[in-house]
Design brief:
This protein has 657 residues and is mainly alpha-helical. Helices cover 55% and strands 1% of the residues. Among the domains are: 74 residues, CD2-Gal4 (Irregular); 313 residues, no CATH class. The protein contains 26 helices and two strands. Strands 1-2 form a two-stranded antiparallel sheet. The longest helix is centred in the middle third of the chain and has 27 residues. The chain is globular, with a radius of gyration of 27 Å. The two termini are 37 Å apart. The C terminus is likely disordered. Keywords: DNA-binding, Metal-binding, Nucleus, Transcription, Transcription regulation, Zinc. It comes from Cercospora kikuchii. This is Zn(2)-C6 fungal-type domain-containing protein. Pfam families: Fungal_trans (PF04082), Zn_clus (PF00172).
Amino acid sequence: MAERPQLTACKTCRSRKRPCDKAVPRCALCVKADTPCTFVDTASGEEYSRQQIADLEHQEAELRAELSHAAGRSTSVSATAVDQNKAQSPRNAAPAEGSNVLETILSNPRFHPQRLRQLLVRPQIQQPVATPAEMPHPDVGHLIFDNYFKESHVQRPMLQKSEVQGLLRRAYLEGEPAQLDPQDSYVFFLICAISAVRLRRQGLLTQHPYSFFLSALRHAEHINLLSGITALQNLLLLNRFAVYYHTGVSTWDIGRICMHLCITLELHLKPMTPLNFSEEQHRRILFWESYVTDRHMSTLLGRPFAIADEDIEVDLPAALSGTEIEGFGGIAQPSPDAAMESPMAVFIAFIKLRQISSRIQTTFFAKTKRASTQLSIHAKMTVFGELLDIYQKLSEDIKMWRQNSPIYFHAETFYQMQEWYEFLAEKEQLFLVRGTIDAIHSRTGSRPTELCDICCSSASKVIHLYSGLYWTKQINCTRHYFQILFTAGLLLAYFSTNEHPDQSDTASAAQEQETMATLMECHRLLQSLGHEMQDALPYAKVFGLICGAAFPNWTTYEPHWQALHANDPDMSRRGHLSTGTFPLSSGLNNAAYGDFDQAEMYYARDTWPDMPTDWSYSPGHLFADMEAYVGQFATGDFSWDPLLNPLSWNMSADGIE
């Protein structure tokens, strides 16, 4: 057991001005006087008895002994894996994405922590009931590969198009399915699995994507997954499918291995000797694909990045198609600038957005500092201004990224749709404003009203933008999208409720109904995604409980909303998106670019009187790592238990009342 921090003198000894021996459960003077040995916590002002501390330490010892016994009986995890787990634990890394804001939300007594406790009982990961698929009929195979080139390959061109086309020809020699070697079979079936996700949702394919994955898995033992470019491609392809279904392996672990391979192959550096440009382009693509994966998964789980941005020297891929690259031949270096409809433009735009995400994560989440009561008002205002300046610059970067995103006049996939780029930009803006709110509060103790309103507006737009893509079956179902919606809904429910102690104006009935309508759409999306991913249903149910606690008339408004939209699956009214579904105060739309009074923002929410600043003493501290659970759900990474608590992993979705 860790050494107990030094206890303060008890009330009896203080009142009699006698030295206290600070013994547990009672000091000598209290034993002699036969009185309870109590003391006052100077941080919280609450009174505790030494007997309570002794009881808690006894319970801690029992729990540690039970955990130690359970660990001793476990044979599935080696000592090396345990050491790695400790080293890579989120407790030793950056906080999970925006965890402080969610701690605040889930620690609030209004949201019934005793019900939210059920979030900690993690459900069993549901895998589809499927059997390995046979090689599809040539017509179906060509449909699947055509869809792959139009969909997944546009965003993640990790495989060279000429190689994939050659694989398709080998698979159907003379118009009939042919026998492929293990490497070709693995790639063939994983391409089928990735492409089948969208085709099955659109009703164009009956075969379940997981069947193709099981077929690919049969060849995994006979292919290279350890070293070289081939291993890197194989792992990236596996991780691509893991976005949609749990493969039994953490996507974060795979991403870490991919980046390790990249560094071993020196893909992060410029070539020492001139290369054929086609080869160099492919090396660039593989590195930046690994970069995107690492940034995405590490941010979700709050873990350190595998490589720092300043250590990367390699250029971005050139915005040219494979045919154009082959036309250069030799070692010629075409300009990276190309036409707006370049096939590589989507991937390059995605990389640039991840670079912005990386700066946000490094700036606001990787280096947290606690609020200091020692700081003067002038010092706090200085810190506030510095953080706000960083926010404005990063917000401008997001705005410029959106303005420079590719424009496709004949979009063949939703990755080329302007709604997709709008969704990505708004999602990034939400991530940024959450980080800014957390950083300002942790350094100064304030949460500016304007930033909270921007957070609500951004969260609302994220929900409606995703809704428009989801109900029209443009966007796929993934755990990451579920995590985004869940977080956006929580932020909107929390910051928009008029029960908040710092809410200066009572929200109008119209605005409250509009907010509830957005939250109900979010709830409906979470439930729909939950039917696709059964282990997500408990989170969807708890989200409904939170909304019910935030809005007293939630249950009475819900039937009205359902009746109103019974025959209207698309809730993304684009008229909402032009002004934002959460109305901003006058001039607030320009707040990100300096058109507001910093002093007014600072004093707007300088204190939160009914909420402790040290969450370790809050009754809701059990949820301090709740977002780590959602992040683990999104990445399929359950190698580390945030609360070190042997909770059940086998609760059904119906387990939540």
